[in-house]
Every structure is written in C-alpha cells, then in structure tokens.
Amino acid sequence: MQKNTLLCIAFFCVLAVQQIIAQIAEGNFKSTIAIKIPGNDAVNYPLWELEEEKATQLKADKDMPVVITRTVGTHLVTAKIENQSVSSVTPVDYLVEVVITAKEDIYFNFKQQINTTYSHDDCQFYMPGFWYRRNLRSPKEAPSFHTSDSWTVREDRLSVPMTAVFNEKTGEYFSVMRKDDFKHEALTTHKEGEVILSGKTSIGYTGFENVNNNANISFGFPYYETPKTYIRKLTLAPQVEAFQFLEKGKSITLSWYVQSGKVADFSGLIRQLWEYSYDIWRPKPVETTFSDDFVKETLTGFFTQSFVTDHPLKFNSGEGMVVATCQSLGRAEIGFVGRVLLNAFNALEYGQQHNRSELVSNSYSVFASYLNHGFTPNELFREFVNFDDNRLKTNILTHSIRRQSEGLYAMFHFLQYEKDNGRKHPEWEAKMKTLLDKILLLQNEDGSFPRKFNDDLKVEDGSGGSTPSVTVPLIMAYKYFNDKKYLNAAKRTADYLENEIISKADYFSSTLDANCEDKEASLYAATAMYYLSLISKGKEQQHYSDLCLKASYFALSWYYMWDVPFAQGQMIGDIGLKTRGWGNVSVENNHIDVFIFEFGSVLNWLSKRYDESRFSDFVTVISSSMRQLLPFENHMCGIAKTGYYPEVVQHTNWDYGRNGKGFYNDIFAPGWTVASLWELLSPGRTEKFLSK
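Request: output the structure for the sequence above.
Response:
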C-alpha cells in the first residue's frame, strides 16, 4: 500500500512539475526591472530570456546597468501519507532563484509575473492572513474586489509571504512563495509613489493581477503595492513602488518556491498550502526565559493595579486605556475587549491557589456587583458601561451575541469552580437561566444568531458570522444545568456553521469593530466544533471533529510562520520581537495580536486525534512567542505598567490610528490580552468542565 501510494504521488508530482515547466516554456513567466535615477521617473526594462547551460540570462532590448540571471531547480518536500511522513523522491515544486548584479550604482525594483492561464473570472485568491477568496466581506475602504480585481501587497502583511490562485472550475491551483533570510527593513520619507529606501530591506511583494482575463501571480522585490496601499484602518492611499540601492559590483539573490496542484475546494487549498508552508518554514519556538508561572505572576500586576472600586460595578479597567500611562478608566466591558468577568474568575482561581487574599476579595466583589447592577431591564448583560460620562459605549440597549456569550462563558467557569469547592450561587444560576432563555428567542430557523440586537431583542444586525461564539456557552449550560434544550440549540448552531460558514469557507464578522474576513470567525468556529466533539460519541463526534479540523486550518492560516524585519528605530523591532506565532487580526485591522484563548487546547486535542504533530508543535511556537512583550521591571516593552500586555502590535505599513509599523496604537485594551494569555497558559479547562 505504501509503495502504491508513493507511485501515485510521484505521478502527480511529475504532472505538477510539467505544468510549471510549461508556464515558463510558453512564455507565461514575464519579468521587468525598473531603474530609478534620483530626481527622475523610473525607467522600465521589459526582459526576455536568453537560455544558457546553467542559468537563464534576462536581457532587455537596450543596454541596462545590471546583469540578471535566473535558475529554476527542483525542491523536495514532505508529504503526509496515511498518517506517516514520507519524503517523496519526486519534487512537487520548483525553486526559482534570481541573481541581480549591478554594473554601476543603481536603485531598482524587480518584477515577475506568472500567467496561470486560468480565467480570472473562474478564480479565487489567497494571501495568508490577509486575502481569502475575493475579500468580498470587506468594505471598499479596505483591500477587496469591491475596489479592484488586481492587488499586489508588501510581504510583511502576510502570515506567509505567498499568493495562490485557485481555479474553482477545475480544482487546479498555482502558488508562489518567497523564501529568503528576512533580516532587513528600511524607512522611507514618503508612503506613496516612487520611493527610495533609506537602507536595505528584505521585504518584497506578492499578489495577483487580471491580465486580459487571465489570472496572473505577480511578485518581486522590493515591495510594490497596487492599485492602492492600505495605510490606516479603512484608508486606502495611492500605490507605492520602493527602490532598493545596489552598489556597483554587488549582487543580490532572490528566491521563490513555485508550486501547482489540484484540490477539492477552497478549504482543501488552505489545508494543502498551510501544511506545505509549515514544512518549508518549520517555525521554531522563540527563546524566552519567561516560565508559565512567571508570566501569570507578572500578569497579576494588571489585576491589582487596574482594579476600580468607586462605582456600582467593580471591575478591572482594561479597555480604551492610553499606553503611555495605563491610567484606569471608569469603563467596564464584560466581553471582548474588556473580558471583565473572565479576568475576575482567573484572578479568583489564582488568588486562592497562591494565597493572594486581595485578588480573591476583589474578584468576589466583581461578581457581587454584576449580580446586583450588571443586567439590563430585560435581564441581559450590560455589555459596556462608561461611568466616566455616564453612558454606554453605543446605544444604551444595543447588544452583541458575542459579548453576551463571552459573559456567559466566564460565569459558567465561575459557577462550576464554586460548586467544585462547595459554594453555591442560586441567584446567579437563576440569572443565567433567564439570560439564556432570552438568548434562545433570537435563534433563527437555520440555527444562526444575529450579530447585534437591542434590549427588546429586536435585531439590528442579522449577520450570522458571530454564531459560533454562542455555541460554547450553550454546551456549558447543557452540562451545568443538565438541560438538553441548550444542547439542541447548540447542535442547531452547528448545522448553520456547517452549511453556511465551514462548507462555504466563508469566515466573517466576528471581530466586533470590523465586518469582514477575520481570524476570530474561524477560531470560534473551530472552538465551537471542539466543544460539540467533546460531548458527542461515535459518528457524530467524528463529524464534529472533522469540521473542527477544517475550520482550524483557516484559523491557523492567520498566524505568522516567519519573522517580519523592522528598521532601526521601530520600537518593537529594537526590542527584538519575533513575529512567528502571532496572528493577524482581519482584513480591516491589519495588525498582529495575542488572540488565542483556548485555541491552543483545540490544536493540541486535534493533534492527538488526527496524529498531526504540526499542530502541537505550532502551539509550542505560539506559546513561546506570545510572551515576548510581557512588561515587567527593566523589560517594560514600551508599556507604562507591569503586567499590562500590549494589544495593537503594528508590524507592517499600517496603523490603527497612530504611530505605524514598529509601534503600538496609542490606545489599547489589556483586559482581553491578559485574559487570552491566561487561558493559553491554563490548558485543559474545557475538557475538565465538560467531564463533570
């Protein structure tokens, strides 16, 4: 069986290689170099190929001040076959290397383009952590097909510097991935037009373009963003073309992997290319000396310093804070981004384990205050209260299914913990049943829940993209109250997720301040199926597990496998931040953060169930990397107070409103970052809860 499988792979690999060869031989691999003399417009040199014995010379019709050679060689990858890793003797991709040598001092931008020969109209497109299908869930103010059907972007926007084109009609795909030693970044004086870099950069570009209705993959060096560059949340600016200096007699070598293949659907593409990328990059854990215990002890600095007591509600101030001061505010947010109740539970559990009486008393005061003052007239959670100006963040009675669900999630952990330690809270249990019964009234016939609604349960945003967030507390309610109506409702959400989200590979609208393709939608979908798997058996459990696996690949695709370079003076680069293991947020919010919560536990569970070591290995990378910016004495990482973990980490040419690459936004929400890291370092909670 093993031999036959290898022969099949060898046959497929030969076909894949032949397709790549055909693209080059048929003239579908085009190249151009632009040379800029400062103070003058760049001159473009279309290139043609002069084949030689060892390498192909790229020549122009007129003299140019560079010598360019390109070699195309085979490359071995590891294939996953019947749960056994075997090295195929037949290459499935090509390594393309280009060497540019300057005959005189030059400033250049080198461009390449592969015509896949697929009809552009038949294709979906993929740039990991940034572009999914056609980004049609995103608005026209962000990169999407609403603005253009052709986009090239700088590589540091992407969790893997790759573009793939997927032909939906045939199942064929073509991908190009850059693989170099990314060490350098340089500043520019301008952000649009032709710009000369102030020094060396390692950052090139990648993307796709519609050329005569053929889908082309475009890639090159240094970066070149068209037709717009995305510089700020919902702000597109004119295109930018960067020019790198190359000294006379010096050379630069650029490398890309070119691959083609065939998959069943877009989900299959995401899985294939995530595994392929992982096997090439093989990200290693980041070397940090911060143990789990040290991280948690440091994070308690947030619990103690941010605690607010002078309002009817007691809470940790964790939303809308200024990075430079970390001064507490009178703003309490129950779910994302404040996670008031989850932080209270974490502080309570830790305080009792480590004899920290202040943490214990503070936490109990949070739950007591929310029992008495934390509900609306219709018995829903007061999601956001701003005591500083005596109003809510938005309309006084506007709610979100996500925040309500996250409040329920925290409360069930608290109630189960208290029950396990011989303490009962019948008033809280009654509140939870009432709230859940209200929530169930919102469930649609297809199993979905609306994204936003008012206190009278009138729907204000009927999008179902946030539905998986409520699956989690419904399963917890089923276990805690032993009432199957909650389980039945959870299973109905699973039907919706399978039919409308997972099967369509359409993960959207879970980020509360954006309505687009995002990481959290796929992460919550995977987590929801994880919960359903844990309380199921037999074929049903296998079904939910397979859906969990499929959604998890999408969530994983948002997490960086490589380390983005920073220029000197870009603070988080000067600190030494390694970006591998961090996740991009969404198409609209183009920054990295530590949103992980219990997804690490999901991946470890999948790793065992499917014998997939990549998952557990990558959890180790994530866990090691996400503790890098922990602020403590003499290691404050640009944060004013110990334990206030940063939020908006701006790693590319984009900002949330302030500061840009290499810095944080000036406003942040450490309430959720602390809660996320705490759950990452508290594995097994869900399995323990659902085993009761």
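DSSP finds 16 helices and 32 strands in the chain.
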